[in-house]
Amino acid sequence: MKIWQNPIWRAATAVLLLSAAACGTESSEAEDADVHLADDAGDVAEDADGSADADDASGVSVPNYYSHIRPMMAARCNECHVEDAIAPMALDSYEGIKEMGRLALGAMETGVMPPWPPAEECGPPLKNRRHISEEEIAVFREWVEAGYPEGEPSDAPPPERDENAPVFDRGEPDLTLDWGFEYTPEPPLAEAVDDYRCFVIDPELNEDQFLNAVRTRPGNTRVVHHALVYSVSEDQAARLEQLEAEDERPGYTCFGGPRTSDPWLLSGWVPGTMPLEFEEGHGVRIEAGSKIVVQMHYNTVNDTEGSDRSLFDLYFVDQETTSRVTELVIIPLAELGLQIEAGDPDAVAVEEGPEIPLPLTLHGVAPHMHLLGKSIKVTAQTGAGEVCLMDIPEWDFNWQGFYLFEEPQVLVPPVLPRLECRYDNSPANQPDGRAPQEVRWGEGTYDEMCLNYFIVERPPGL
Ligand code: HEC
């Protein structure tokens, strides 16, 4: 747990200040393809509004399934709502969405679907934002109220993009991480549906590499709920092997992190996330000799029997052809002393980082709490005033993200980062029907965290 303590942040700051290395750092997530989808879907909505082919007698356009709803579902929902994906029902057929019509409308109106926790008002624009516009919801509402007109398959607009075209076209990865066997998730508690497993993989790196892109390829999308990739230093490897040896099942059980003292987050994936891709020449350092730990969150609601063997394609910065690598570092800020009283419906934990006297180029953030978390907000006091960096007003453990900004943000010194976490520890909000208890920092399911990772560039020349 030492890793999360403020001294680490200070040490990282010291590295920023003192390091003589000429590299910068960064980590990222993949979100570009979502942006394209979102743009496409915006067009779809406009088409829907503008098209006259479904006009009724009064001249008012009545949306129908093939012309309007089907393309909307494809753009906004079906990355998750198809057969064999993580969502419980498929919405890619007329029958499928008709059956769910009112519920789907409600989910869109309340903002529950598509899932996208960050508040729009806070922070710079994010890559891969999932959203559905008010106009699109209005079209959907009209369709529901008109009694789900089906229209003709021949009315369907041509797909907005070639569905066979790869969204991520990077060719062969430099390295594919594979833990090497089919794993059958098994929740440790009889009533539970979640299994958190860590697998240790040796990337066999002889020299430091800079991770530029990660493509997560879930083996079984019915059970993989999220996957985090960490690097762990060589001297922690023995401890990890011991954890694997002590666990009766393959890998080892883990919830809040890989259970070592120095894990470095490299990437995170939840369903619907595009491959993580940093800008050209940018990368997160993976040291020679380090091990990789992948933390898998399995959810067995859809499939209690299925097994999984997920793969992770890594792409490194080509150090031979890149004149200057921009190194990204992923620095945690955490409130380790958090203490949440039993029964408290609105406990607050706040942590402020040390003041950083340098401009910081911030590429993104990744906030993290566990199951009692209600909301989390990341801000910074800077030389140019306070900036809001991320606000998740309704924290949902299942939809945590590794959020990259569309444009890196330069924070004017002095920079004082701040993190505010709220928790509901009332009887009504207890996992697995437990009685409320005092909760402190820890990696266990019933422990809590108040943590944010800052994805920053190491300043050039330092
Ligand atoms: C990124 C994945 C993802 C996307 C995109 C997505 N969903 Fe979902 N949806 C889920 C999952 C997973 C569930 C199951 C509940 C949960 O885990 O939140 C769900 C549940 C639902 C439910 C049931 C909610 C309830 O109250 O029981 C509806 C209805 C729904 N989605 C509709 C939609 C619609 C309509 C869209 C598009 C506008 C959409 N979803 C987009 C993943 C997604």
From TrEMBL:
Keywords: Disulfide bond, Signal
SUPFAM superfamilies: PHM/PNGase F
InterPro entries, per database record: Cu2_ascorb_mOase-like_C (IPR014784), Cu2_ascorb_mOase_N_sf (IPR036939), PHM/PNGase_F_dom_sf (IPR008977)
N-terminal signal peptide: 1-24
Single GO MF descriptor: copper ion binding
Protein name (record): Copper type II ascorbate-dependent monooxygenase C-terminal domain-containing protein
